[in-house]
């Protein structure tokens, strides 16, 4: 039964990611270029407008690895409800849809549906990123470290607002420092 429950959650996540809304705002502009190999690795979710599976996420980390065929092996892990909560792991697959910039992806949880995934802000040193969607329904602020300076967070939150997101829906994801983890 647990795998049936997990399958049901994935299907519900897809409906929330792909819903039937029409896009009335102009497309979100992506960054000019992403060095895809440099982008690979671990990204801590600092804040987001969460999907329903992320609403009680703690220590959320998105990890990317480049496959030989150019797709992105993705592992999304978090603890549910607390730092000691049940470990949840998902494995969507990323597809670079614009190889000129590498900043527009499709993220696939269930074949054949691909969710809109846009790298809309990236620091020069590849330490902080904002991932957005045209619908402005979900957004993720991520970093290579579990915490970022408050000034950096406020700057990225302001950028999200300028992109047309409702920033009152953004919530910080609880993260423990690496030394504080078990």
Instruction: Give average pLDDT, whole number.
Output: 87
Structural class: alpha+beta
Q: What share of residues is helical? A: 10-25%
Strand order of the largest sheet: 1-2-3-5-6-7-8-9
Percent of sequence in beta strands: 35-45%
User: Helix count, per DSSP?
Assistant: 3
Count the beta strands: 10
Overall form = globular
Distance between the termini: 30 Å
Largest sheet, described in full?
8 strands, antiparallel, barrel
Q: Work out the radius of gyration.
A: 16 Å
Q: What is the N-to-C succession of helices and strands?
A: HHEEEEEEEEEHE
- In the predicted model, the low-confidence regions spanning at least 5 consecutive residues are 7-23
Compose a concise summary of this entry.
With 182 residues, this protein is α+β, with helices and mostly antiparallel strands.
Question: How would you describe this protein?
Answer:
The longest helix is centred in the first third of the chain and has 17 residues, at 2-18. The radius of gyration is 16 Å and the shape is globular. Mean pLDDT is 87; it is low at 7-23. Helices cover 19% and strands 36% of the residues. It has helices at residues 2-18, 36-39, 150-162; strands at residues 41-49, 57-66, 72-80, 86-90, 93-96, 104-110, 113-122, 128-132, 139-143, 171-172. A hairpin with a 6-residue loop joins strand 8 (128-132) and strand 9. It has three helices and ten strands; from the N terminus they run ααβββββββββαβ. The chain is α+β, with helices and mostly antiparallel strands. The protein has an eight-stranded antiparallel barrel with strand order 1-2-3-5-6-7-8-9.
